[in-house]
Amino acid sequence: MSAGLNIAQLAAVNHLAGPCLVLAGAGSGKTRVITHKIARLIQAGLAAHRIAAITFTNKAAAEMRERARQLVGKPAKDVVICTFHSLGVRLLREDGAVLGLKQQFSILDTDGITSILKDCGGTTDAATARQWQWAISAWKSAGLNAEQALAQARDENERVIALVMAKYQERLAAYQSVDFDDLISLPLKLLEQHAPVREKWQKLLGHVLVDEYQDTNATQYELLKLLVGERGRFTAVGDDDQSIYGWRGATLDNLKKLPQDFPALKVIKLEQNYRSTSAILRAANHVIGPNPKLFPKTLWSELGEGEPVRVIACDHEDHEAERAVARIQSLRAGSAAAGSTGAQHKAFKDFAILYRANHQARALETALRKAQIPYKVSGGQSFFDRAEIKDLCAWLRLLVNNDDDPAFLRAITTPKRGIGHQTLAQLGAFATQYKVSLFEALFSHSLQAALPARAVHGLHEFGRYLNDLEHRARHTSGHEAAKAFLDDWLKTIGYEQYLLDSEESDKVAAARWGNVIDFCDWVAQRCGGQIDDTGGLTTEREPKTLLEVAQTIALIATISEREQEQDVVTLSTLHASKGLEWPHVILAGVNEGLLPFQRDDSLNDEALGKLIEEERRLMYVGITRAQHTLVVSWLKRRKKGREMVPGQPSRFIAEMQLDAATVKEDPREKLRALRAEFAQRAASPPA
Ligand code: ATP
Ligand code: MG
């Protein structure tokens, strides 16, 4: 049990009875404390399902589950390991009824939210809707409802938004839908206002562990407090120097409040870093130096000095991307050459290229493709997350399961078919009253008495169309027939026109329609049996019916999210890299204006200072992802809008205080890159 833990880590792992805070720098084994503590709690007799570990992302949750499985085996599957948001979903699904929420409520994505906001506020402008979304989200995470927001509005604009918010909330209730913020604020309300529910959860959860605690927001903290109750059996681990979600409402107050709210809190510091070489760690410590210290800490490493951190000045984005590719090829070629001498082989997955903003991935992707280097864009949008694909999947899901209410609501409103939200609200109320699904409610005899005839007529028309579609889907199989079916369906519901109407730019609409075509081809191929989804185990090519294929779609969508552990280079934003580590890291585009990111010039000095501090923490997070080598590159010329402007190295590069002699690039690298390229050409057969 004590294997692989130092004394301070062990103290944290063995402190079972009361509240515990582990406050420590990057790579010091905080996340490791959490996984080992899960094992320790189980060993001490706490049932696995009474342990909850909260991570920052779903991916981190999956990783933690895997590590826990390695430590404790089977029971790991019963531990609740998830994000605050998925924990919120669970609370609401189990006990949301007391708030008037159906068990099958749906969760809106950003597209869903903006489209409702546009509707409520009578605008077609996407930027306005997004601005509203931000404001409403900020109010919600501060715990305000629409009335309270209106009461404290400071100007006309805020008053308008508060009024839109009131309508928006009504709409969500009618649709039995919640947004992302609701997943925290509604469970909070649930626990605050309903003592029996609160007691149930406090009794159930024997210990709650929270990773990345520095990035929790005010409502998450309140939720945590209610979950653990006065006994406070929890373990929080975090690093104030890695707080990078202040812009989304995360607050370090949560760290300061902890000792006050829980006087019995045991605070443990970890100082040894097990991740990075001394050269990398020194650069990181220097960078974070200028920030004010909430909790001073020193980090040291036993992993030796290692290679110097290297800074590379590049002509422009494309050049930078080529350099990154050359670096990867050269290190890999170097390791291949050294193979006989026992040096470790460097896989693609040992490399990560990190950047500040999503758009910076484009040039990198192009260069990696050209060099035939496999990569994945982490945090990027998966095909199945696109709004248009989700729309179509909602229809297909509804064919498979008529009682899927979220799918029902999405299908009946996308595209709009003259059935207003009032009708849907009435249908929803009816369904709730009689405890039936929306689809079932639609055909109920007593609905006629509850709704105006015109509304019932519209609903019946939709229901009949669905029944007809389902019947045909059941009897359609083979590639061509499926294609015809899908064409006919999209024409009947007017989906292409809907895209054209909902996008201001025809180009964007065309791109989304292109995705729809891809999706239809993909479905049709499955109906033809050309592709099988069982991982290539079956070779039979039986045609399948559309309904059968629809049934597998939900499954396939989740599988494609799980294809992690491939040997590929990772491209990631700095934000999405939190908590992860790679042997070789390249930080790209480390320029003034990019990192620190240039914002609104109208900010006052104090606000600007705070932003710079957060950007500095982001740089610190980036540096501390690296285990063995770190390259930092910046652009001599960079794009700003459509123009090229001269680029300046980020102030954070100077702050790393690198030894001038080591900053220069290794000339051998270029040579090695060239050699690697030749080797690759020689290895691939002539076209
Ligand atoms: P971050 O602040 O980036 O989230 P962290 O503090 O959570 O980092 P971990 O990811 O838990 O750090 O650990 C960093 C690395 O050090 C991991 O590879 C982990 O396996 C290793 N490690 C942690 N503790 C020990 C230890 N006591 N002995 C050996 N290796 C350790
Ligand atoms: Mg961690």
Structural key phrases:
29 helices, six-stranded parallel beta sheet, binds magnesium ion, alpha/beta, globular, 11% strand, 18 strands
Can you offer a commentary on this structure?
With 687 residues, this protein is of the alpha/beta class. It contains 29 helices and 18 strands. The strands form 5 sheets. Strands 3-2-6-7-1-8 form a 6-stranded parallel sheet, with helices on both faces. Strands 11-16-15-12-14-13 form a 6-stranded parallel sheet. Strand 2, helix 3 and strand 3 form a beta-alpha-beta unit. It is globular, with a radius of gyration of 27 Å. Adenosine-5'-triphosphate binds next to helix 2. The site of adenosine-5'-triphosphate (ATP) has 18 residues, from helix 2.
Oligomer: single chain
- Which structural class fits the helix and strand makeup? alpha/beta
Strand order of the largest sheet: 3-2-6-7-1-8
Major sheet description: 6 strands, parallel
Shape: globular
Give the rounded overall mean pLDDT: 86
What ligand species are in this complex? adenosine-5'-triphosphate, magnesium ion
Distance between the termini: 56 Å
A few lines on this structure:
The chain has 687 residues and is an alpha/beta fold.
Blueprint of the fold:
Elements: H1 7-14, E1 20-24, H2 30-43, E2 51-55, H3 58-72, E3 80-83, H4 84-95, E4 106-107, H5 110-121, H6 126-141, H7 146-151, H8 156-174, E5 177-178, H9 182-193, H10 195-204, E6 207-210, H11 218-228, E7 234-238, H12 253-261, E8 266-270, E9 272-273, H13 278-288, E10 300-301, E11 310-314, H14 317-337, E12 351-355, H15 361-370, E13 375-378, H16 387-400, H17 405-413, H18 421-434, H19 438-442, H20 447-450, H21 453-475, H22 479-493, H23 495-502, H24 506-527, H25 546-561, E14 569-573, E15 582-587, H26 605-623, E16 626-635, E17 637-640, E18 643-646, H27 651-655, H28 660-663, H29 667-683
Parallel strand pairs: 1-7, 1-8, 2-3, 2-6, 4-5, 6-7, 9-10, 11-16, 12-14, 12-15, 13-14, 15-16
Antiparallel strand pairs: 17-18
